[in-house]
Amino acid sequence: MGAQIRVLKRRIKSVTATKKITRAMEMIAASRIVKAQRKVAASTPYADELTNAVTAVAHGSDVKHPLTTEVERPRRAALLLITSDRGLAGGYSSNALKAGEHLTSELVSEGKEVDTYIVGRKGVAYYGFRERAITDSWTGFTDNPTYADAKMVAAPLIEAMERDTDKGGVDELHIVFTEFVSMMTQTPVERRLLPLTFEKSAEESAQVFAKGAQAHALYDFEPSAEKVLDALLPRYVESRIYNALLQAAASKHAATRRAMKSATDNAEELIKSLSRLANAARQAEITQEITEIVGGASALADATAGSDR
Amino acid sequence: MAELHVELVAADRKVWSGEASMVVARTTAGDIGILPGHQPVLSVLQSGPVTIRTTGASGEGTVIAAVHGGFLSYTDGKLSLLAEIAELADEIDVERAERSLEQAKADADAAAERRADVRLRAVAAGR
Question: What are A147-150's contacts with CB under 8 Å, separation 24+?
C-alpha cells in the first residue's frame, strides 16, 4: 500500500472516532435539555405565586423597604453573571460574557461602580485571565443547579443590598443569564432584579384593566406588612436566581447539543472527502501498476520479437 | 358551602393542590385556621405541620405536610402555601428523619434539629 493511502486511512479512522464521541455528547445533551426544561417548568408555580405575593404587598401597602426603594443617586451596582463550568458549547459562555461586558460598561458610563459576582468556571477564567476583580464566585453546579445553590448565591447579594453603600454595600442588583427561548434559540439577557420594578407589559396591564381592581385586594398582613416584606423579598430574589440558573443550565445543554451536532456533521463531511481522496489515491496506484505491467509486457514482447528476427 | 382551593408549592415543585374545607398552618404570630371566605391575608409561615381538610374531587380526608418556612396568602377562595421545602407526611422517610434528628442533636445544629422535628411531628399527626 502506498504511503499516501496509509496516511489517509489513518486520518479517516481518527475522524470516525471523534465523530463517535461528538455524537454521544450530542445525545447526552439532548436528554439533559428535556430534564432541565422540566425543572424550569416545575419551579414556575412557586416563582409565579411569589411574584403575586410581592406585587400584592407592594400595591397593598406603602411600606418602604431597602430592597424596593430606588436610591436617588445609585453609586454602586452588583452584577451577577451566569456562565457555565464547561466549554464545548459553541458561543454559549462568550455570549453571556459579552452581554455582561455590555452591561458593565453601561453601568460604568452611568457613573456606578460595578461589583462582579460570577457563577461558572468559564466566567471566572475570563475575569481571572484579564486580572479583573471578582467579588465572589461559585462553580461546580451549573449543569444541574438546586435551590440550595441558588440560596447560596443569593445570600451575599442580599446582604450587600442591605448594607450601606458607604460600607461596601450596593444600590442595585443586576443579573445576566442566558434565557432558554426554544431548543434552537437561547439569548443572553440583562435584568435588573433590585430595586424591584413593577413594570408590566401592555398586555398584562390590559388584563388587569379588564378584570377590574382584582390586583388590589386588601390584604391583612401578619404579623405586619414590614415583617412580611422582610421575609418575602429575600425569597423572591432567591427564586429569581434559581429560575435564572435553571434557564442557563437548559440553555447550556441546548448550546452543547447544537455545537456537537455541527461537529458530528463536519466530521461526516470530512470523512466523506477523505474517503474520496483515499479512493483516488488507490485508483491512481492501481492505474500505475497496470501501466507498469503493460509497459513491462510490451517491452518484453518487443524484445522477444527482436530476437526472433 | 364555598370552596377553598389550595395550592401547596415548594421551590422546585408543586406538592399538592385541590379543594379543601379548612387549612390550619403555623405562622410566626401563631396558628392560623383558614376557612372559605376568609379575609385576604398574607402571612409568614414558621416551620411546622400544615393540616389540610380536603373535600371535593380529592374526597373527604386530611392531608398533612411538613413545611419549612414560607408564606401563606389567601384571596378570593384561593389559598397559596409557598415554602422553600414542603413534604407530604406520607413522603417523609421516618427513619431518615429520626437519624437526622439524632445527628442534629449531636452537632447542636438548631435549624436542622427543628427541620427533622417538624418532619417527625407531621408524620405523627398524619397517623
Answer: A147/A238, A147/A242, A147/B11, A147/B12, A147/B84, A149/A242, A149/A245, A150/A238, A150/A239, A150/A241, A150/A242, A150/A245
